[in-house]
Design a protein that fits this description.
Helix content: under 10%
Order of helices and strands: EEEEEEEEHE
Largest sheet: 4 strands, antiparallel
Oligomer: single chain
Strand order of the largest sheet: 6-7-8-9
Strand content: 25-35%
Number of helices: 1
Length: 123
Amino acid sequence: MANIRRANFNGSIPGVAPHLLPENAAQMAKNCRLVNGNIAPLRDNALEATPAKAGTKLSIFRMGNYWLHWISEVDAVPALRAGDTEDTTYFTENGELRVTNAAMATTGGDQYPMDWRKVGVPA
C-alpha cells in the first residue's frame, strides 16, 4: 500500500462546499489515516471481493453489494432517482452510454456487469 503525499495536507473539511475547498483539503476522507501531511490507508482491511474478469482491471464501481469491474477505462455513476430500488447504474464504455441494474448486472455469472443496455434513441 502506498501513501499519497500532498504538501501541507489539511485533511477533511466537511462543512465547506467542494468548489470552495482549498487545493490541499478534502471534503471527506474515509478508510484512511491523515497524519503529518500524508494520506495513508488503514491497515488490515478485510477482503471484500475478488473481481472475476481475467486481465488487469482498470475500473471498478460498487453497486449495492456487488463490485462492477472492467478491463477498460469506464466512468460509472448511480442513477439519481428518488425511490430507485433497482441499483440503477449508468456507465460509459467504448464511447457508449450504457445502463444496468442489480438484476441485469448480477444474473448469470460473476463477471459483473453481466448485462446492460445502451441508453438513447437510434439516429
